[in-house]
Amino acid sequence: MSEIANPKRIRLVRRSPAYWRVTFDHPPLNIFGPETIPQLNEIITALETDENVKVIVFDSAVEGFFLMHYDFLAKLEDTTNLPPGPTGLPQLPDMLVRLSRAPVVSIVSIRGRATGVGSELALASDMRFASRERAILSQWEVGAGLVPGGGPMARLPRLMGRGRALEVLLSADDIRGDLAELYGYVNRALPDSELDEFVDALAVRIASFDKQAIAETKHLVNIASLPPDTDIAPEWEACMASIVRPAAQARLKTLMERGFHKPGDVENRLGYHVGQLGSGPL
Amino acid sequence: MSEIANPKRIRLVRRSPAYWRVTFDHPPLNIFGPETIPQLNEIITALETDENVKVIVFDSAVEGFFLMHYDFLAKLEDTTNLPPGPTGLPQLPDMLVRLSRAPVVSIVSIRGRATGVGSELALASDMRFASRERAILSQWEVGAGLVPGGGPMARLPRLMGRGRALEVLLSADDIRGDLAELYGYVNRALPDSELDEFVDALAVRIASFDKQAIAETKHLVNIASLPPDTDIAPEWEACMASIVRPAAQARLKTLMERGFHKPGDVENRLGYHVGQLGSGPL
Amino acid sequence: MSEIANPKRIRLVRRSPAYWRVTFDHPPLNIFGPETIPQLNEIITALETDENVKVIVFDSAVEGFFLMHYDFLAKLEDTTNLPPGPTGLPQLPDMLVRLSRAPVVSIVSIRGRATGVGSELALASDMRFASRERAILSQWEVGAGLVPGGGPMARLPRLMGRGRALEVLLSADDIRGDLAELYGYVNRALPDSELDEFVDALAVRIASFDKQAIAETKHLVNIASLPPDTDIAPEWEACMASIVRPAAQARLKTLMERGFHKPGDVENRLGYHVGQLGSGPL
What is the pLDDT of residues B11-67, one digit of tens each? Predict the structure, then answer.
């Protein structure tokens, strides 16, 4: 076993040359920010270039939180000043489209909250399995006056159809395991006690297969199912433009005053709280 | 609160500047015909131009019928002589594609039968919620020798996949709440006693969000999920051509003799009755 | 009633001029090979040209097996030397895309295992119904170092979304009735005791409708939902290339030694057995 990247935020462990695990470990909330981008990028680049890896599983070491929204305490320039990635897209959407295209099977194992970037990373991965009792998925952004930026408008309708995608995005509400399974937001919701064993067995199984057969089959699915990068780029632009608008700034300020970015009820029940911000001047 | 349009057929009530309700109220069957088109058009135009509206809910005031098939007692010329709408499409499909693109969230709350135009309006809306016990959705047209004309061949496969879409269209049968949910014909089927409260709470929630964030997010979903207008136009043409063919005329005549367009068993169980028309000369 | 083609492998029975049944009857395993291609082609051609047929149902007369993988005991040249079909595609994918486009409703009634070609024929058909207790669907190929060749990478994501399609293809595992229904791999899974009656009633119903209304409605669904032939062609090429690679040859050899192509546990539980081949040199 070996590790790369900063072990404090995103830990990579190679269970075998073919089967890697990535664990988000940025307590207390697994918030994703500009300083985490290079750590994730290092892993995506390894997936693209390693000759042996066949399957990667993403999970979390933080109780209650798989991976969360972007860091609104970081300076916006720390994100907007980053150079574009290899695809020409800004770095976060760039990494996500590269993950979708990597010749490796990516699986997310969702226990706790996958909100914002957490949901977007799940959607960019190949398969999603969730704890029936403990997973919460959401795109909370519209509730805070924001436009999501990491691809969900392009990816959600292709997974669950336009109607359910619009509900996820425009209700901005928390989606629990059962509903996520019904909607196809995840492949399956499993009893929490079975999730780890199920995902591990699937990953071990895939790791025993031929890498070329995996990569070619996935590539042919990509042709049929991936959105073009030209549909991803405007999401990021709309997201960045939305952040600086008064409607979003006022809502984010109120959320911060109520406990956003800190352990507690606002982060635990973000769907509820974005519904309590009102529509008038805040 | 204010009202526009003819209150006898389609009633618009503004619960607030941001949250509008439209109620189909054309007893006894909520049949949709050429005289109803201008009433619906007035509402769609208001949705496109009003600066405050964020969400609109469609429901019915007629027991047992959400919104039904087209009026076959009206003269065909009353429909075919209507000038095209702003998109260049004929008026009914024109209104439906404009509803899908309007910068406002449209939600249908289906209690009773949504057949033909009723199903097509539901499919053109952003989200669909149905009474588990009392909703019936259907595209009955093929059962009467007709081709549906308001977009379902383009919209259903994008919601539920080709196989289930072909079943809905080519079985021409009634689809009840549970199956509609399984197939993704509706977002969710809810217990009848919970439907109104659920839809109202969702609409109130969305009405509290920022209109620009809603509109931009929906626009990006549109890119990923709406059929092109060029796929809608041939449906209307095929529908109009089918109506005048002997196969449809004979079936419609038999249905009329059995009680079509009148309250009673034919309209209540239209799926059953189109299966009883036989295949030979009628 | 009349019959065409070799009755030993694929039997065609015309229940009526409008309603045809095709039964796969190649015991003990319903394996599909180059010698079966002309028999299926004859049926597809009849579907394209007959003026009366409206609906065709595919089922199996072989206990436990609906239709299986390709025949690996046949010489590869018997397949690769076949001239292309009318679409310009090689014969097997050619027949499947022609089945999808035929102006006739195709329904598969799956009892027993639909693996490889069996799954691909099901996916190319218009509707799929499965025995809840006795149907097993799978694309087993990646588990044997192969790339599937009959269209599933193009068709599965359009039916069930990218995530579940990737799971079906890259897990290469057996999918039973309940999961197949949840994923949309089949329209519905029905209790085994109800399957035959349900499918027959649906076929009889559709056979009573107008052929032109059926054909035009299906054609418009095709526009919205069929993959282009240019997405099908590379699957076949990748499949043929994969067969001769050492990774596949070694896995197929091991499977053969364990009982592949013979009645018994390997064919009965193919999903399990492809997971037991290991990843190292075999």
Answer: 999 999 999 999 999 999 999 999 999 999 999 999 999 999 999 999 999 999 999
Q: For the CA atoms of C124, C128, C130, C135, what is the dihedral angle to 10 degrees?
A: 10
Query: C110 pairs with which residues across the strands?
Result: C130
C-alpha–C-alpha distance, residues A119 and B253, integer Å = 54
The DSSP symbol for C70 reads: B
Count of CB atoms within 10 A of residue B86's CB?
Answer: 14
Task: Kindly report the number of other CB atoms within 10 A of residue B148's CB atom.
Answer: 29
Stronger pLDDT, C100 or C8, i.e. the higher one: C100
pLDDT of residue C279: 76
* Residue that the structure tokens 């001769």 belong to: C244
> pLDDT tens, B231-252?
999 999 999 999 999 999 999 9
**∠ at Cα C19 (C17, C20), nearest 5°?**
95
φ and ψ at residue C70, rounded to 5 degrees: -70, 160
Written as one letter, the residue type at A105 is V
φ and ψ at residue C202, rounded to 5 degrees: -65, -40
Q: CB–CB of A54/A92 below 8 Å?
A: no
Query: Per residue in A200-231, pLDDT tens?
Result: 999 999 999 999 999 999 999 999 999 999 99
Q: Which chain A residues contact residue C160 at CB under 8 A?
A: 184
Residues of B in contact with A281 (CB under 8 A): none
Q: Which chains touch B (3 or more CB pairs under 8 A)?
A: A, C
Nearest to C162 among A158, A209, A216 (CB): A158
**For B118-141, what is each residue's pLDDT tens digit?**
999 999 999 999 999 999 999 999
Residue-wise pLDDT for C112-149, tens only, equals: 999 999 999 999 999 999 999 999 999 999 999 999 99
CB-based contact A18 C238, cutoff 8 Å: no
Partner-chain contact B208 A279, CB within 8 Å: yes
* Residues B104 and B56 sit within 8 Å (Cβ to Cβ): yes
Decide if C126 touches B, using CB distance below 8 A: yes
Q: What is the DSSP string of A190-228?
A: E-HHHHHHHHHHHHHHHHTS-HHHHHHHHHHHHHHHPPP
What angle in degrees, to the nearest 10, is found between the helix axes of B229-243 and B152-171? 40
Say if CB A158 and CB A126 are below 8 A apart.
no
Average pLDDT score over residue span A21-36: 95
CB contact under 8 Å between A223 and C154, yes or no, is: yes
pLDDT at C5 over 80: no
A78-112 pLDDT tens trace: 999 999 999 999 999 999 999 999 999 999 999 99
| Tokens encoding C36 | 């079966």
For chain B, where are the alpha helices, taking DSSP H only? 37-49, 76-80, 91-101, 117-124, 152-171, 177-183, 192-207, 211-225, 229-243, 246-258, 265-268, 270-274
Subunit contact A146:B213, Cβ cutoff 8 A? yes
Contact C67, C11 (CB under 8 A): no
Residue in C134, C110, C123, C133 with CA at minimum distance from that of residue C165: C123
Report CB contact under 8 Å: C166, A218.
yes
CA distance, residue B15 to nearest chain A CA (Å): 15
Burial class (CB in 10 A: 0-12, 13-18, 19+), B216: buried
> pTM higher than 0.80, yes or no?
yes
Q: Does C78 touch chain A (CB under 8 A)?
A: no
Tell me the C-alpha distance between B73 and B68, whole Å: 14
Q: How far apart are CA B13 and CA A178, in angstroms?
A: 35
Three-class secondary structure of residue C130 per DSSP:
strand
Please indicate whether, in this complex, the C-beta atoms of C224 and B157 are within 8 angstroms of each other.
yes
Confidence of residue B8 (pLDDT cuts 50, 70, 90): low
